[in-house]
Amino acid sequence: MHTMKKKQLLAKAFYSAVLVAGMLFSSSSVFAQVKIGTNPTTINAANNLEVEASGGNKVSVDKTTGKVTIADGSQGAGKILTSDANGVATWQTQSSLAIPVTVFSGSITSTATIPTWTAHDLVTQRLPLVPTVGAAGWDATTKRWTTPADGTYSVQVGLSCNSTTGAGVALWTRIWVVSEGGGPLFKGISPMGAPAGDWQSVVYTGKLSTGDGISLEGYTMQVDGNPPVNPIWTGTCNRAYMTVTKID
């Protein structure tokens, strides 16, 4: 009799195991997704996992890519995920974290001519850069980039040019910052010749306001700093670049 009951119990246990297994296999699509927290029966069809807070913020895992999305209300394009001393993670802007970010980068894509100096800040002196970063702030007509926000900026420029007339000509490379009036410190000067030419790089760092214009300018003058007697002393540049970094 004892043996009989034991067999009955084993049979029932086996039946239950088979039933549970069948339910698992037949409901595999249900168990492929897990929802925790608020709205436990509602889950995005693209996600394997969702954890939803009472306020509607979610952390989810995409079932195809495996990518994690943290939508806690502080998220936004270009933000960085960071944490406080207690390990609470939030999305922050680079500027709020004082992380330098390149806001403009551009260079010439073909040989450019720089003129003989006749007056300061002429459009003809500005290099026709083609932006790869920060195109929204670049004006191809004025050949200037406009700062989008107040802050501290570092501007780096470079020119590689040859003289069209040979010796006795100096290459001037200038960062022209509208609010600084082109500042006398933001320029490079050195003689250049037709065979070898000259390469110069110049750096400017300072506080700028929203709407300040920045341009890379190049022109030729006599080595002694006077305007050339012969006005055809131009230069040809095969390399020119400008990079603007927002520091804070």
Q: Can you describe what's shown?
A:
- With 248 residues, this protein is mainly beta.
- It is 12% helix and 43% strand.
- It has two helices and 17 strands.
- Strands 7, 8, 9, 12, 15 and 17 form a six-stranded antiparallel beta sheet that branches.
- A hairpin with a 5-residue loop joins strand 3 and strand 4.
- The chain is elongated, with a radius of gyration of 33 Å.
Short description:
The chain has 248 residues and is mainly β. It is built from two helices and 17 strands. The N and C termini lie far apart (86 Å).
Task: Set out the fold topology.
Layout: H1 2-26, H2 28-31, E1 34-37, E2 47-52, E3 58-62, E4 68-71, E5 80-83, E6 89-92, E7 101-107, E8 112-114, E9 130-133, E10 138-139, E11 144-146, E12 151-163, E13 169-177, E14 187-192, E15 198-208, E16 213-222, E17 235-246
Parallel strand pairs: 1-2
Antiparallel strand pairs: 2-3, 3-4, 5-6, 7-9, 7-17, 8-17, 10-11, 11-16, 12-15, 12-17, 13-14, 13-16
What are the defining features of this structure?
2 helices; 17 strands; elongated
Percent of sequence in beta strands: 35-45%
- Low-confidence parts lasting 5 or more residues at pLDDT below 50? 4-30
The helix-strand sequence is HHEEEEEEEEEEEEEEEEE
The gross shape turns out to be elongated
**Using DSSP, what is the number of strands?**
17
Largest sheet: 6 strands, antiparallel
Ends distance? 86 Å
Assembly annotation? single chain
Number of helices: 2
Q: Which structural category fits the helices and strands?
A: mainly beta
Helix content: 10-25%
Mean pLDDT reading = 80
Rg, Cα atoms, Å: 33 Å
